[in-house]
């Protein structure tokens, strides 16, 4: 087992930056007389304090869990032609010829047909790629649900475009253009049509949330910008944390569906909390911090214990590689179960919360061969280093050593 051997520091924090007036900020920040960071679709101040940001009035977004504001995409959305939406055939009447004798049939959208074909014939190379078949969501389940819900169809095709951009770099620009446009349509339709999650639409909403969060996770690493990565990753966690609120009302309906075993397996992973030697010294640093109150210390320690469970599996006394399902679900489930106050501490660049994120970077790095994750682990820990005081950099030595020592091949994750 790899030992840390780190000293302790007491509540060291980075000095606060001076603020300048923001003339293009949201109306809520202006009312509160504070600097707005002008982040879209909701500014950071409103996201942290659960206020209704005026920017949201013109931007589509997922519904959020209490205390969390969600960004649908960390990057600007380029212009996309209205006729690119596969839902347009359902929402618009079929045009007729002047004589009214026969409808004018539009040309088939070959790109969207290609994307749909890809959805039918691939599992998007997402774990689990093996194991018990009942723990895998059948692709037919996704496609069937998408045929009834335009918001899911748009996001499914958007995710297919993102996957094809990964598989075919020569056409990546074209596919990514469609990925962004279709995702934008998906969010717009979702916000317009989805007012309540129920037994009928619950499966479609859960699948939509699953694809949307994976889509956003992949986009955090593009472009490869270390300085801005932490902000993008914080937006991803806020979006993913909102999944709990979206799916809460449909949970029982999902347990009655063909997704039952997958959801029960995910529930087991979500509830895994453990103590261990890998995180004991960081827990001590958090416990002795003078910059956090007792509730904030508890929030950071709980988030860390959920990471410790995974570290104990891959670097414990009896080393073992968790199953494909457990590995991926533990990685993806973490942003859903951490306390909303942890996201606030990350947004405020609190050193203790950033150090917890550096341990989560280990989990990301171990699954770097999964295309939606890629170099996210490396970017996260490098970005954390940029936002920490130099005196705290030694706490990052051990997570970086773990990332160098442990490795998963494509067959391991």
Number of helices: 19
Give me the strand/helix succession. Answer: HHHHHHHHHHHHHHHHHHH
Radius of gyration: 22 Å
Describe the global form.
globular
> Which structural class fits the helix and strand makeup?
mainly alpha
Can you describe this structure in just a few lines?
Helix content is 54%, strand content 0%. It has 19 helices and no strands.
Describe the structure.
There is one protein chain. The chain is mostly helical. It has 3 domains: 27-58, Irregular (CD2-Gal4); 110-264, no CATH class; 271-405, no CATH class. Helix content is 54%, strand content 0%. The protein has 19 helices and no strands. Helix 16 (340-347) packs across helix 17 (351-366). Residues 1-20, 63-94 and 408-413 have low confidence and may be disordered.
């Amino acid at each position: 087992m790899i030992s840390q051997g780190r000293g302790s520091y007491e509540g060291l924090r980075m000095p606060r930056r001076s603020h300048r007036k923001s003339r293009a900020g949201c109306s809520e920040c202006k009312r509160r007389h504070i600097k707005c960071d002008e982040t879209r679709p909701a500014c950071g101040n409103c996201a942290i304090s659960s206020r209704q940001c005026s920017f949201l009035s013109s931007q589509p977004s997922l519904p959020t869990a209490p205390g969390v504001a969600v960004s649908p995409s960390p990057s600007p959305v380029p212009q996309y032609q209205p006729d690119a939406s596969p839902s347009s055939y359902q929402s618009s009447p079929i045009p007729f010829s002047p004589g009214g004798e026969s409808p004018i049939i539009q040309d088939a959208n070959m790109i969207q047909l290609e994307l749909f074909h890809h959805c039918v014939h691939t599992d998007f190379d997402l774990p689990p790629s093996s194991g018990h078949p009942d723990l895998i969501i059948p692709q037919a389940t996704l496609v069937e649900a998408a045929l009834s819900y335009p918001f899911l169809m748009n996001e499914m095709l958007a995710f297919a475009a993102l996957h094809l951009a990964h598989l075919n770099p020569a056409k990546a620009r074209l596919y990514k253009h469609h990925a962004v446009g279709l995702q934008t349509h998906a969010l717009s339709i979702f916000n317009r049509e989805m007012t309540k999650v129920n037994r009928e639409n619950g499966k479609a909403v859960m699948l939509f949330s699953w694809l949307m969060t994976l889509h956003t996770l992949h986009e955090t690493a593009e472009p490869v910008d270390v300085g801005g990565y932490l902000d993008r990753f914080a937006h991803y966690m806020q979006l993913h944390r909102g999944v709990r609120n979206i799916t809460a009302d449909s949970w029982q309906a999902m347990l009655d569906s063909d997704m039952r075993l997958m959801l029960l397996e995910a529930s087991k992973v979500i509830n895994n909390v453990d103590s261990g030697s890998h995180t004991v010294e960081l827990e001590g640093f958090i416990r002795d911090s003078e910059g956090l109150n007792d509730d904030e210390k508890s929030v950071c320690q709980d988030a860390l214990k959920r990471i410790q469970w995974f570290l104990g599996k891959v670097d414990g006394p009896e080393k073992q590689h968790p199953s494909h399902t457990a590995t991926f679900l533990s990685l993806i489930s973490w942003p859903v179960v951490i306390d909303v106050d942890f996201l606030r501490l990350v947004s405020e660049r609190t050193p203790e919360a950033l150090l917890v994120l550096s341990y989560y970077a280990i989990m990301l790095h171990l699954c770097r061969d999964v295309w939606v994750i890629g170099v996210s682990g490396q970017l996260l820990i490098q970005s954390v280093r940029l936002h920490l005081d130099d005196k705290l950099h030694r706490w990052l030595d051990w997570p970086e050593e773990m990332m160098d020592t442990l490795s998963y091949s494509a067959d391991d994750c």
